Write the structure tokens for this entry.
Amino acid sequence: MASNSFGLIYRFTSFGESHGDCLGVILDGVPSNFPLDLTKIQADLDRRKPGQNKLMSQRKEDDDFELVSGYFEGKTTGTPLTFLVRNKDQKSRSYTDIVNLYRPGHADYTYHKKYKNYNPYGGGRSSARETLARVIAGSVAKQFLETFNISIEAQLTQVGDIKGSVDLMHEEILRVKKLGNSIGGKIEVRAKNIPVGVGEPIYEKLDARLAYAFMSINAVKAVEIGDGVEVVTKMGSENNDVIRKDGRFESNHSGGILGGISTGQDLLASVSIKPTPSIFVTQDTINKNNEEVQFDLKGRHDPCVALRAPVIIEAMMAQVVFDLMLLDGSFFS
Ligand SMILES: Cc1cc2nc3c(=O)[nH]c(=O)nc-3n(C[C@H](O)[C@H](O)[C@H](O)COP(=O)(O)O)c2cc1C
């Protein structure tokens, strides 16, 4: 597997599998002598973990981390920060009946065809347990961005056809869960107080890096910046954001990015996430002997993975913004 790292200057490398010993992440390019608050990292990890309420998978993962390098007397040393999160609540026997099957919508088929040997338990390396690494990397990035007063907030804004109302979205997730099924969702993310000038045209555009970062998250099927796909039906006069002499823009259809560079307006993006592939209704598939079979799944899966994704989306936006600010050289000089 060739690619387990993300980032240009602030680069993270993740390792581990869902039902292996641990998940870990190495953060490279972290400036030294920074007073990193570890409680904020744990708070972000707690927002990602399953089992928080009845809308989520009942897997009980504490996701406490060990910080094993790069930190001395409360500050970063500039050497790689290495975090480990032990896997404690694996129930591999839930997978014994299905390890020879390719779950529709999951990565079993492609991993097996490509690698021949892979750990299928709990989704192995394709499991979203890997997003722990992203959340840690993003949480560290957020703390550096806070020194610029930059804040990033993502929220679930749509579940199936239900938009806006949190109660109605949650009701929809429960309805689908009772059917043993799953449902997709949309997350909107906003970063505030972004300075002008973040992003490197032509090939490291801010919007290009964001799209890459979000699309690399499990189950993400679409990314939109600003008004996104709605631009198709707009005229230029409706879509252009008028600039005033004090640097104020009268609208923000562009999502705070022009020419791949931040305008100083809020960064706006949305991410569409597919329904959880693992569902509790009888499904058709094939097994590793190429026979068509029917199967029923056991185990604990989220009925709507989008519910747990906001903190992951925030993390990837933080990683990208921090990374491009470091790449520019003038922001953290
Ligand atoms: C936070 C999060 C949790 C997820 N949990 C599950 C899960 O419990 N069961 C499952 O089948 N898929 C889950 N997924 C989705 C799979 O990891 C993903 O669909 C699979 O790896 C195939 O990759 P792809 O959908 O990107 O093609 C989750 C995704 C995210 C973002």
Q: What stands out?
A: The pocket of flavin mononucleotide is lined by residues 57, 106-107, 123, 126-128, 131, 217-219, 274, 276-278, 301-302, 305, 308-309 (CB under 6 Å). The domain at 5-328 is CATH 3.60.150.10 (Chorismate synthase, AroC fold).
